[in-house]
Amino acid sequence: MSTYEAKLQGREEIAQGTMAFHFEKPAGFIFKPGQAIDLLLPDAPDLVAGSARHTFSIASAPFQDELVVATRMRDSAYKRALSALPIGTQVRLEGPSGSLTLHSDRARPALFMAGGIGITPFMSILRQAAKDRLPQQMVLLYSNRRPEDAAFLAELQQLARQQPQNFRLVATMTGMGKSQQPWDGATGAIDEALVRQICAEIAAPICYLAGPPAMVEAVRHSLGDAGVNDDDIRSEEFYGY
Ligand SMILES: Cc1cc2nc3c(=O)[nH]c(=O)nc-3n(C[C@H](O)[C@H](O)[C@H](O)COP(=O)(O)OP(=O)(O)OC[C@H]3O[C@@H](n4cnc5c(N)ncnc54)[C@H](O)[C@@H]3O)c2cc1C
Q: I want to staple 134 with a disulfide (CB 3.0 to 4.6 A). Which of 11, 18, 24, 129 is the partner?
């Protein structure tokens, strides 16, 4: 892993309580879609030793000229310091790290399963795949409580419309009772029935999971129960949720 300096260029809310942070891409920084960086914040009053570093998957794709991370804005010391960073601040990045990257056997489909902000590594993969016009088949199961919480949903819906042969999106909501928005898509968790249904439609996928640890563990069980071999499952747990 190498260390880089990068300037914060902008930030915006991309779903309720979820922000994207845009950094300039440092010269020489090379990464694969699906990889992560450690973001080290400059000194801030309530950051105690060791808490100035967090790991984030890179949501932007390598072809883009910026680095974007996205996060749920919980009330932690780190997130308070991150949201207070003035635009133009230099931060330290370490990376890239992680191996939640697309398999090289293009004949095998990819089945991505994201819980909430676990969507970030798959955004990078899907954006780069669309740019490269990868013919590989990809399916994304994307679970959120409500459409209001679902980061990048409109972009994903557009990617699915643009590449109907290669990319299928199944977004599912688990808490529509608390939503103010209309939703005519799937509801309920990513469970064994959904996984079985998708696995019956695509041959021998490599499965990728990202999200809160409890979600990753539950979906891993569902995949096992649906007969997916453990060797074909890759996962990343986002601690702290
Ligand atoms: C590879 C990777 C990629 C990630 N990508 C993203 C991303 O794209 N977006 C995003 O929002 N988050 C991502 N995360 C999670 C992120 O690093 C933070 O943990 C998360 O945002 C919570 O931070 P917080 O400041 O809200 O909570 P914190 O106050 O930092 O943490 C809350 C609690 O989480 C637990 N915890 C924290 N770190 C660890 C750890 N390493 N091992 C075990 N328990 C731990 C502790 O119990 C801690 O008290 C990623 C994590 C990993 C490992």
A: 129
pLDDT digits (tens, 9 = 90+) for 199-224: 999 989 999 999 999 999 999 999 99
Residue 122 Cβ inside 6 Å of ligand 1? The answer reads: no
CATH number of 110-237: 3.40.50.80
CA atoms within 13 A on the CB side of 142: 28
Bridge partners (DSSP) of residue 215 are none
Q: Where are the domains of the chain?
A: 2-97, 110-237
What pLDDT, in 10s, does the model give residues 87-146? 999 999 999 999 999 999 999 999 999 999 999 999 999 999 999 999 999 999 999 999
**Ligand 1 atom index nearest CA of 77:** 25
Return the CATH fold of 2-97: Elongation Factor Tu (Ef-tu); domain 3 (2.40.30)
Q: How many CB atoms lie within 10 A of CB 115?
A: 25
Instruction: Identify which of 22, 239, 241 to mutate to test ligand 1's pocket (most ligand atoms within 8 A of the CB).
Output: 239
